[in-house]
Amino acid sequence: MSTAGTSPLDRASLAQFVDHTLLKPEATRADFEALVDEGVALGVYSVCVSPSVLPLDGKGLKIATVCGFPSGTHHSEVKAAEAARSIADGADEVDMVIDLGAAKAGDWAYVQADIAAVRAAVPAPKVLKVIIESAALTDHEIVEACRASEAAGADFVKTSTGFHPAGGASTHAVSIMAETVGGRLGVKASGGVRTLADALAMIEHGATRLGLSGTAAVLAGFDGIEPAEGGSSGY
Question: Which Gene3D superfamilies does the record cross-reference, listed alphabetically (predicted)?
């Protein structure tokens, strides 16, 4: 898979950064199957889908799902059970949401323990990404959330669910996250990344994965095509 800081990206290499995402609650199985077909055609790394749709034939793509989504306020044992079910149903990667209230209260021991509970349910080589909802955190809280994620054994830290009113990914947050984890963890930028310029900026600032619902529009930027309005799937 491509990494940041190498040669300029072309369409195919950028596509390999992408978790092609559909998390709209009204999405049907037919919508998810169409997502897979589109992802295959676009050459993405994975599709990211709701856990209730699993198992899902990824047709060679990795399958990612979410856990404790989107609020993160579920009990740790419930998050762990959800993650374990997703792994049993064929997920390769799980994107969990931290307890944002605990983070805002500075209870980093709880945040770490919550992540560790899910990590235990997502054994390596399965991948655990931790959504910290960076737009709702201060810079200090972003650093502490990343440290808790690393201490709990996560593989990635991730900016956003795409559903929080505070907003989604920013290059500022991605930079802080990348500096904090220092290459030991991946950094996933998601939430509001809708143009080729957005995607490239996130990678330039340290993102090693992108969560996109409008992948086709982003990749069309290589052809100088402006993305259409709308079409967001929460990312």
Answer: Aldolase class I (3.20.20.70)
- Cβ atoms < 10 Å from Cβ of 231: 11
Q: Which domain, by its residues, includes 204? A: 11-223
Is residue 212 included in any domain, yes or no?
yes
- Please indicate, yes or no, if residue 213 is contained in any of the structural domains: yes
For the question of residue 104 being annotated catalytic, the response is no
Catalytic position from the list 19, 95, 155, 198? 95
- Assess if residue 6 is contained within a domain: no
Of 99, 129, 155, 188, which is the active-site residue? 188
Give the active site residue among 79, 99, 129, 158.
158
* SS3 state of residue 38: helix
Concerning whether 95 is annotated as a catalytic residue, the answer is yes
Q: Catalytic site residue 129?
A: no
Rounded to an integer, what distance in angstroms lies between the CA atom of residue 84 and that of residue 107?
A: 25
21-79: pLDDT as tens digits: 999 999 999 999 999 999 999 999 999 999 999 999 999 999 999 999 999 999 999 99
Q: 105-138 pLDDT, tens per residue?
A: 999 999 999 999 999 999 999 999 999 999 999 9
Question: What total of structural domains would you count in the chain?
Answer: 1
- The CATH number given to whatever domain includes residue 179 is 3.20.20.70
5: alpha, beta or left, given left = phi > 0 and alpha = psi -120 to 50?
left
* Domain assignment present for 228: no
Query: What pTM was estimated for this model as a whole?
Result: 0.92
